[in-house]
Amino acid sequence: MVVIMTVLSRTFYQRNTVDVARDLLGKIIVRKYKNRVLTGMIVETEAYRVNDPACHAYKGKTNRNSSLFGTVGHAYVYMSYGIHFCLNLVSREPECAAGGVLIRALEPLEGIDIMQELRSKDHITNLMNGPGKLTQAFGIERHHDGIDVTQDGELYIIENPACISQNDICASPRIGISQGLEKPWRFYYAHNQYVSKKQSIIYEQ
DNA sequence: CACCCGATTATCT
DNA sequence: GATAATCGGGTGT
Questions:
Q1: Which of A2, A41, A101, A190 is buried deepest, with most CB atoms within 10 A?
Q2: Shortest CA–C1' contact from A61: which nucleotide?
Q3: Under 8 Å CB-to-CB from A82, ≥6 apart: which residues?
Q4: C1' (B1) to CA (A20) span, angstroms
Q5: What is the pTM of this model?
Q6: Adjacent-strand bridge partners of A90
Q7: Does the structure show a pLDDT above 90 at A100?
C-alpha cells in the first residue's frame, strides 16, 4: 500500500495567523529522528500576532525572535523558563510583519517507543500534552530554529488522510500569558485526552 | 555585568 | 492546587 503524503504548502501559512492556528488542528507533524520516523496529530494550538502584547515579536525584532519575522512555513524554536523548548510555525498574511502558531499538544501516532525514551515517561497521555513536552518527545532543540517545514526533511507538516471532525473544535484564551487574555486564540479538540489543560472557559466554534 | 522574569513542568501534599 | 526548579535573553547600569 502506498501512502500519499501531501506536505502542507507555503501558501497554507501565508494567511491570517488565527486562521492558520485553527486549520492546523488535525494535521500531522513528521519528525525524522536518527533513522526513525516520529509522527503526531496536532490537537492544540495558539496564535500569536505581532500587534499583540503576548507575542514575542511585539517589541520588535531581536536575535532571539528573528524567525518570527522570516519567511512563513519555517519553524520558530525558543527556550522557555530556561528548561525546555517550544515549537512555533511562522505564519501570517503578507502585509503583516511577524506572527506564528505555537504548537501546544499532539496526539502521538508513530514512534511512541522513541518518545517514551526521550521523555523518560511511558504513559501515552503524558508524552506530548504540553508545548515543552512535545519538543522533548520529538528531540527538537534550539538548532531547529528557522528550519523549513514545507519540504521533506527533519521536520515538516502533512495533511491528515483520516477524516477529522471539525465540529468539536473549541477556542479559549491562551495559556500562561498576562496580556491579551481577551483574545480567544487558543484552539483545541474538545474532550481530547491529549490537550494540555482543561479550561473552564470554552467558546464553541 | 547584574538583575528580572517567562507562550512551563515535575513533584510534592 | 501549590510550589520549587531552572537559565537564557532582554534591559539597563
A1: A101
A2: C10
A3: none
A4: 42
A5: 0.93
A6: A100
A7: yes
Strand B and A46 CB separated by under 7 Å: yes
The nucleotide lying nearest A68 (C-alpha to C1') is: B7
- Angle between helical axes of A112-119 and A131-138 (0-180°, round to 10): 110
Query: Does residue A25 contact residue A42 with C-beta atoms inside 8 Å?
Result: yes
Nucleotides of C under 7 A from a protein CB: 5-11
Could you check: is the Cβ of residue A177 within 7 Å of any atom of nucleic acid strand B? Answer: yes
**Under a CB-based contact definition with an 8 Å cutoff, are residues A110 and A98 in contact?**
no
Does at least one atom of strand C sit less than 7 Å from the CB of A132? no
Query: CA A27 to CA A8: how far, in whole Å?
Result: 9
Cell numbers 511562522: residue: A90
Write the pLDDT tens digit of every residue in A45-74: 999 998 888 899 988 888 889 999 999 999
Contacts of A166 (CB under 8 A, 6+ apart): A26, A205
Question: Which H or E run contains A132?
Answer: helix A131-138
